[in-house]
Amino acid sequence: MLNENTTNISLINLPELPDSVDNALQNLTDAPSKNAGQTFGDLWFLVFGGITQAANKKRLKYARDLEVYNQELTSAIEQIPADNKIEPSIQTTAQALENSKYCISEPELRKMFVNLISNSMDGRVSDAVHPSFPEIIKQMSPVDAKIISTFKQKSNQPIVNYNLSTLSTTRPLEKYIFFDTNGTHSYLYATSISSLERLGLLSVDFMNKLTDSSSYNVFSKWAYYEHLKKQFENDNSDDYIEIEQGVCSLTPLGQIFVSVCVS
User: Fold this and answer.
1) Does the reported pTM lie above 0.90?
2) Which residues pair with 207 in a beta bridge?
3) Helix (H, G, I), strand (E, B), or coil: what is residue 96?
4) Is residue 183 assigned to a domain?
5) Residue 32 preceded by cis peptide, ω within 30
6) Per-residue pLDDT of the chain in tens (263 residues, 90 and over written 9)
7) Which of 6, 95, 143, 178 has its CA 20 to 30 A from that of 150?
8) Cβ-contact 123, 154 below 8 angstroms
9) Is the same domain home to 53 and 103?
10) Residues 152, 125 share a domain
């Protein structure tokens, strides 16, 4: 039980973790945010207080990651002006802490949880925090997090399919070819785009395309495209490689998610 009259009070009590964890959220008890800090500290202990005490490498690594998580959360919460700091939503914050247990060793996902939880305690943006966000982050991979983060700067991005076409037929060869905003491609990106589409954050539209045609130049200059042309196009066949242009965009839910969860 937390005692409001005790000085040097610790909101977090994680057995056998480094000393720096013990006092990490102490400042949150200062008025006018005392209730917000106490509620958050109680939630943290309920979620993380029962971590096994087995002295093995996995636990030590997790303990280090947990300390980093604690420090990042503390820093983010400290940056909220006192007048704007509110009690965290039990529905959102308890879910976020629970789901983050499985993700804190992945920096990209951990940072999203930090942003989500701190924004849920910021009265200026808390109305935008949706209860589905903790579960969405939990279902994301680090690559998913990398992809969705690029949409903060550019909400509509080019995407293509490589199709094998003749005069009368078309069949897909490679779907959801995507380059990130750094001009980098990975074969994992297609899976991530599909996953983010399933989560309701992205939509893919091949009925429309970006007005700037130069946005698609990277797909026709890619070495793999040239490889496909050499493989399938020849003088004895009508087959040719078609680049089907499309647009990958944030959905309304995706726009709010990025504004809340992406730095």
Assistant:
1) no
2) none
3) helix
4) yes
5) yes
6) 444 443 333 333 434 444 444 454 454 445 445 667 777 877 777 777 655 444 456 777 888 899 999 999 999 999 999 999 999 888 899 999 999 999 999 999 999 999 999 999 999 999 999 999 999 999 999 999 999 999 998 999 999 999 999 877 889 999 999 999 888 898 899 999 999 999 999 999 999 999 999 999 999 999 999 999 998 888 777 889 999 999 999 999 999 999 999 98
7) 95
8) no
9) yes
10) no
